Amino acid sequence: MSKVSTISPSPVAKAFKHIQWDPLSSLRLSPQETALLRMAETNPIEYTLGDARDATMYVRVLLKLLAEASINVSGHVARITEECTENRALDALDADPLGVVTHYAIAKLNEILSTLTSPWAAENGVSVANVFYAGSECLLIEQWKALLRIISKGKGDSYAQRSAALSLATVLLAACPSQRIRPGRGAKETTSSVRIPSYASAIEPLEALTAWIITQLKSSNAATVGTTVPAMMTLMGATEGRQIFAASGGIKYLSRQLRQRESKSSPSPTASGSDRKANSPVQQLYELAFCLWCLTYELNNFADVRADFSKDGLPVMALVELVSSAPREKVVRVALAALRNLATCSADVNPEPDAPRIDSKVFLGEMIACGLMKAIGLLQDRQFTDPDIVDDVESLHKLLQENFKDMTRWEVYQNEVETGQLQWGSTHTGAFFKENAKMMEGKDGDFKLVKILISLLSSKDEDIAAIACHDLGEFCRYYPNGRGIAKRLGAKDIAMSLIEHDNPELQRHALQCVSKMMVQNWEYVK
């Protein structure tokens, strides 16, 4: 298991050493628990963790602090976003002692988990399983719910939420079968003495944590999304975490976030200094793209994951946009790696039951429709320091060229419409529609592409809306009763509303589209 992700310090960290436990009667600490907290403050963390009994008790006391302190927090500390001077931190301790205690307990838990996932822990035979899983069946300790309470009811405390989520993710990751550690060279433990945490006891908490992450990903606020990123990146380290995330609809929301973040060039002006660093556009783009890349490693294992990646063409679209905009080399690297996994995935091992086959050919078609070939051509002319980028660019170029040769003009057009990435070209001409108008019926006769074109009339991208107007007009010209079908599906009213648009090009295409719906012999009018 890799070392736990790092978190910026609490803004009130300078007050931690001034906490007086005796006056805080609402925490209901026993004399033994208070003594353990004081002992842990005076000794290195390795000393406390070196004794299994002390380590387990110390963690339970910290989780008790969270459970008791979070009930009556005033919210004063939660509103502090900038790092405090010692005097200001002491003022916060006076105003909201339980808020400071909450930050203290979370900071200590993160320190413990960082130590338990370090080489020192492996060499000394201690692990997350020894401390956070108990009993003969090695079940997750019940006190984990204190972390979930902080995550779910953090009252806008970004430090508490981000850090508690990371702590919980790290604890749960240790139970995943794919992460079980075999004793390495120099480790004290033997195979027979290794404690194997119960994955069954971690499934419900994993699902609860993932549900919270998904809820946060639905937000358009970068700071809100930022609270999830360390925990999400941690969960992506295990196949079990990736599976639960994908099954919860995470691929869709992650892709939406990538598109939103890519379109914004600056963080919220109200974000704190630490939040601005954590939520800077490029860094957050990289972290979200990294998570999506990790999920592509489940493509060959699960039909549902392939289906989610192909749904609405959104994930491919988000990744192609990242490559096209090329904000930083590290972002391009993970986006290209994800696209390469999509371009080489197979449905042979776990085929979809009674469903259309979704494999690399489907994703390559989406990539072509989204304009990846042009973006790859531009990347070939750039100089990159990372050899992996060069290798991915060349591999994708070859795969795209081979797939493009096998695609008919209709398949190219169909992929373009289904992904919503319309671009002027040879498939948006009268000659093309004269030849292919009957294909617009679709396999099921539901005129799916016509319906998509009608929806694209409302696109915020004015070029896409203009092309949709053009294509619908051509459909009306060349398909028998195309005018009646387009009007019945609602195209006329939407196109009419665009006739007075500020963009003269869109205005012109909207007028022509409506005219083609109204006039039977358009060529004579033209």
UniProtKB/TrEMBL annotation:
Domain (ATPase V1 complex subunit H C-terminal) spans: 407-522
Start and end residues of each stretch annotated as Disordered: 258-278
- Keywords for the protein's UniProt record, in alphabetical order: Hydrogen ion transport, Ion transport, Transport
Which Gene3D superfamilies does its entry note? Leucine-rich Repeat Variant, V-type ATPase, subunit H, C-terminal domain
InterPro entries in UniProt: ARM-like, ARM-type_fold, Armadillo, ATPase_V1-cplx_hsu, ATPase_V1-cplx_hsu_C, ATPase_V1-cplx_hsu_C_sf
Which Gene Ontology BP terms does the record give?
proton transmembrane transport
The ARM repeats lie at 314-343
One Pfam annotation reads V-ATPase_H_C
- Keyword Ribosomal protein listed? The answer is no
PROSITE patterns hit by this protein = ARM_REPEAT
Family listed: Belongs to the V-ATPase H subunit family.
Q: What is this protein called?
A: ATPase V1 complex subunit H C-terminal domain-containing protein
Native source species: Cyclotella atomus
Taxonomic lineage is: Eukaryota, Sar, Stramenopiles, Ochrophyta, Bacillariophyta
